[in-house]
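Each lists sequence, tokenised fold; shown next:
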Amino acid sequence: MVAAKSIKETIMEELQTKEIVCIPASEEDYLDLASKLPFKVEYHKSEIITMGLTSFWHETLVMNIGAILNILFSDSDEHYVLGSNSGVQIPKFEGGYYMPDVLVLKGEPIFKANSTAIITNPYIIVEVLSKATEVFDITEKLHEYKSLPSLKQIIFVSQKELGVMNFLRSENPNIWLNQDFYNDNDRMQIDGKEIAVKDIYKKVKFTN
């Protein structure tokens, strides 16, 4: 495998001309590199995947969602709202490491061995979709996220238009219920609590 330093240099160079960069690497290379780059770095099927710095509107959505969730769980001592610097390991899929835009943990964290940053028991995961990664997020990532027994809800938020895809785990752990929201006046539930979809998009301007 290429040394971690060379991988970092390659990623930084390729991001000058590409929206998303995929570099073959070992799991060890990924874990070493993830702490050295200032943006989200993920690992899927023996490849490091990164899209570099995100857009202004992407981060506006992330902060809106984080604020909503912090208010939603403000009275709970067992829920933790975390940002994208926290990693999630998919134990069922070897070498699967992702950094959701926002995640909620319920109860005590179960960390990957020898880590205090990567957990294996997220409760709610939120991803703000980007043009470069949208297909990957709603196919490969969604499939792997569903394998986590602790996970109860997965939310995908579009940044190109008002649109939220909500996946809720049913009483049968292998059955997920999907709801889509496309209107300002729509209301959805997060962990049984109702929120207005328009609050997710507060101050957001859509661009092509």
Summary: The mean pLDDT is 90.
